[in-house]
């Protein structure tokens, strides 16, 4: 096997770091708006709202680019968790993250041109990109244009379920991000996978 292999195309890397920067910006400004305290603002309230709305609209653009580029290049296939034995492979991977990695056991999956992701990554990335992000983007868009929300729902203000969905999806995304960054350190070296997401080259 070659010592290093070019696995992550330039467009994926540009999308990935743009997406990460926008989501971090949305996280900081979203927290400023949600836990607003005039005495102790993380970011000034009015400014936080403006940055949050702008970054949100940009994130929708980045997301549409991601979906279209995935279809055009065929890269979407990497995100599909593939049988047979998918549950077994997810379990093996989870066991390795939970125990094997601390015992120095070999990684159960080696990224390759044919299969970028291990089974757990495929399921997680698919769910985040095709379930969680649409929920957060659509609820954010309705929040931005509240005239599209129903006036009332089950006797409550119609925006309440939208607000709740947006908030819970944001918490889930933040939890994903924490685990994503931690699991990113479990390559052959702590920096191996971060380096790959910058240069595109996976070092075996
Ligand atoms: C500071 C924030 C972030 C850091 C440091 C980071 C780091 C990484 C690293 C090291 C990888 C390579 C590991 C792998 O192939 O699984 C990766 C890949 C990936 N990350 Fe992130 N990430 C961040 C934010 C995000 C966010 C917010 C999302 C989605 C909402 C995301 C989605 C992805 C996806 C889909 C891949 C696979 C890309 C590919 O190879 O096709 N990342 N990230």
How is the secondary structure organized here?
Blueprint: E1 4-6, H1 10-34, H2 45-73, H3 86-98, H4 119-144, E2 152-153, E3 156-157, H5 159-183, H6 192-199, E4 201-203
Helix pairs in contact: 1-2, 2-4, 4-5
The protein binds protoporphyrin IX containing FE (HEM).
Properties at a glance:
204 residues, mainly alpha, two-stranded antiparallel sheet, 4 strands, 5% strand, binds protoporphyrin IX containing FE
Account of the 3D structure:
With 204 residues, this protein is mainly α. The chain has one domain (4-22, 57-203). The chain is built from six helices and four strands; from the N terminus they run E-H-H-H-H-E-E-H-H-E. Helix 1 (10-34) runs antiparallel to helix 2, helix 2 crosses helix 4 (119-144) and helix 4 (119-144) runs antiparallel to helix 5 (159-183). It is elongated, with a radius of gyration of 19 Å. The protein starts with a strand and ends with a strand. The mean pLDDT is 95. The structure holds protoporphyrin IX containing FE. Protoporphyrin IX containing FE binds next to helix 1, helix 4, helix 5 and helix 6.
